[in-house]
Amino acid sequence: MATNLLLSIAWTHVSTRVRQTLVGMFGVAMGVGFTIMMAGLMQGSQIDFLRQLVDTMPHITVNDERRGIPSQPADQEYAAVGMSNVANVNRRPGIRYPDTLMASLRSWLPGEVAPSTKTTAIVDHSGARIGVTLMGIDPRLEVRVSKLGQQMTEGKLSDLSKAANGIIIGEALAQKLAVKYGNSVVLVGGGEANQMSATVVGIFRSGIKSVDEGQIYSLASLAQTLMGQTGIINLLRLRLSDPLVAQKVATQVEAQTGYKSVSWQESNSDLLSAFATRDFIVLTVMGAMLLTSSFATYNIISTITHEKRHDIAIMKSLGMREYSVRRIFIIESAIMGSVGILFGWLLGYLLCYAWSQINVYNPLTGAVVPLSIYYSPMHYIASGGISILCCAVAAFFPARKATRVHPVEIIRGAS
Amino acid sequence: MTEIALQTVNLVRRVQGEISHTLVNGIDLAVEKGEFLAITGPSGSGKSSLLYLLGLLDAPTEGEVIICGQATSKLSETERADVRLTKCGFVFQFHFLLPEFTALDNVLLPMRAAGVMSAKDMNERAMSLLTSLGLGEQTGKRPNQLSGGQRQRVALARALANRPEIIVADEPTGNLDTASTEQVFGILRDIADNGQTVVVVTHDAALAARADRRIHIVDGKIHETTFGGDRKRESPAVTPAAECQS
Fold this sequence. Notes:
By secondary structure, chain A is α+β, with helices and mostly antiparallel strands. Chain A has 17 helices and twelve strands.
C-alpha cells in the first residue's frame, strides 16, 4: 500500500483535530522534558559527588599489606608435615625500598606517585581529644597526587616545611577542637609515650566530611617520629591522568609490587553499588514517566479510532488491507510523538538550564554552589527513543482493535 | 456463450449466536458481464447479506463466490481485500466518503491504494469521472459542502475509479430525493450498458423493474426472478467462468 496515501490520511486526521493532537503532543513533551531534567539532575549530582571524591582522595593507594596470608618458611620446607603453632615470619612494617619502587612505577605509570606515612594519632587541644588519621607527606610531591594545595582555606601546603612540627587540619576538625590557624595542639601517637607539640600551619576543606573531620597532614618525618619508625614509608599514593582506569592500573601495580593496591573504585565499592541501585531506581521512574505520558497518546488514538470507525470500514471495504489501515493510526501516533519529543527536548533543556541557576547550601561543606546538571545527548536520544516506542505501542492496541472490526458490522450499524 | 462476471454456488451465510440464524440459504446465481441485476425483498430477507457476500465484504459459511473466474472461498482476508480493490466497486446507502478529504481526494483514494497508475494519470481519471458525473465544479469541495445527490455521485465515481468489473450498490438511492434518485439510477444503468456488471439492492420496485433482471429474496432464498428491458430472457446458463476481460 502506498505509504504516501497512509501518510496523507494520517496527516489529515491529526491536522484536522488540532486540540486532540496538541493534548497528545503536550503529554509526550511533558514526559520527555521532565525525564531529561531528572536524568540531568541525578547524573549531575552523582558526577559532582564522584568528582569531589576522586579529587579528594588518591586514585590508587599502595600500602604495606598483602592480600593473601604469606606462606611460612616451615610450610614451604615441610609442607607434607602438619605443623601447628609455628611462629609467623616477623615482617618489618612499611614498604621496602620505596624510592626504587616509585622509580620503577614512574617508568610506566600513566600518572604520578608520592610516598606517605600513614598512622593514627590523637589531637589534643585544651582538653578536647579527637582521634585522627595522620598522613605524613612530602609537600613537593603531594601537589602531584592530590588537590590538597587547592583545598587550603588558610595557609599553604608548603608551610609544612617552614614550621617545626607543622600540621594541616580539616575545617570541620578545627571547628570541633576550636582550633584556629597558628594555634598549637598536642599530637599523641599510638603508645601515649610519643607525644609532641604541633602547630596548625594550614586549614583545608575537601568537601568530604569524613576527611575534613578525621584526617590531618604533616611532614613524613613527623609521622615517622610519632610512629617510632624512622624512615618508614607505608603508603604510596597514585594519581592517574584518567581516574576511570584506576582499577586496571591497581591490578598491574599489585602484580608488580606484591603490595595491596586499592583503587578508588574498590575502596568506594559500597558507594558505587549504591549509585548503581540509585541509577536503576531513577531509570525505572523515568521509564514510568514516559509510559504514563504515552497514555495520553493511547487515549487520543482510542478516541480517533472510535470516531473514525466509519472511515476504517469504508477503507477496508474499498480494499485497503487491515495492517495498512492500522499503520495510519500508528503513523498518527508517531507524528504526535515526534513533534511532542521535539518540544520535550526543548522543555528538558530549559528545565535543566533553570535548575542550574539555582544555588543550594551544602551543610557539610558550608558552601553555596549551583546545582550540578549533566547535559548529555544520550538523555535526549534515550528519552526520545523510549517515548516514540511507547507512542507506537500505545497506538498499536487501539488501532488493532478498531481495524479488526468487520466492515459489514459498521456498515450495517450505519444503515 | 455468455461471459459470467459473478457466480455463486450454493451460497449459505449463517450467523451463530444464542439463536442460530440463516441469512442466505443456498443461493445459486450467475450474473453476466454487463448485466444490471436488482435484488429486492422485504427487510431482513437477506438481500444486503447476499450483496456483501457477492462483494467479498463478508465470507460465506458454505458455498462459493466466483468473481471473474476466481474462486474466493479459500482466499485469505488480505487476498479478499486485493480482489475488492481491483474487481469490485462499492456504493452504499450512506455515501461513506472520508469527511476531511475533498471529492477529488475521495475518488483518488482507491487508485492510490492500488498504486498502479502514475499521479498524473490518477488525477486525470478522477477529474474525468467527476466531470462525467456532473461534478466538474465540485472537485475541491468536502462532502459536507455537497448535496446528498452530489455525495452519492462522488461515491459512484470512487467506485468506478479502479475500473472494477462489478459495481455493488446497497440501497444507493435510499437517502435521495426523486430527482437525485433518477440521476443516480440513470448513471448505474449507463455503467451496465458500458459493459460493467451492476448489482443493486433496492426497496424501490419501480427502479428494480428497470434492471435487466430482478431477483426477489425471501428468507435468504431466491423467491422470484423477473427479467426486464431488452434483456428479457431465460436465466443465463452457468458456464465455466473465465477471467473477465476488461
